[in-house]
Amino acid sequence: MATAVQQGNGQALRVAAVWGTTVIALRVLERGQSFELGESELAVLPIPDGIEMPQIPLRGQAGGWDVDARGVQGGLLRLRGRDEDPASVGRGGVPVPIVPGDFGLLQYGTFAIFFQYTAAPQPMAAGFGLELLIVLAFFSSGILHIGVLGLVRALMTPPPINKPLELTNPDE
User: Fold this and answer.
1) In the chain, where do the E strands start and end?
2) What is the pTM of this model?
3) First CA to last CA across the chain, in angstroms?
């Protein structure tokens, strides 16, 4: 598992919706963002047919997130360093706040939701960074191409030599 994230601005919540063994949606939520299911515009995907579950299983708050485990049939839930039974937490009917280090897999039959605290992803650096391996790759490619062209030139059949003027006959 990922190491616990230090308290600060770099916290995020990685959430994945899983059907069987296939990840069908993956989001990294910033503070205050929720993972919503259903038919609204903010929904990540619709709630599967025949599954009784809350529309917002992971609700964003100003200080973090709350997990609403109503309707959970099984799974794994680690809260504050202790393993909890997700079904019994869901029967309580009250959303439970989650803190750094908490993670869980809430199973609703073959549909499941995984969540885990993580560090916020770093944005990719803008611009073109010249790396040593790129330079070496171009250098090696140049040596290879020059070598192949030199080999072709060395193995090429020379053009025929013309007869000297002394041996040519004017009738020819």
Assistant:
1) 11-19, 22-29, 58-60, 65-67, 74-79, 82-84, 96-98, 103-108, 111-119
2) 0.62
3) 90
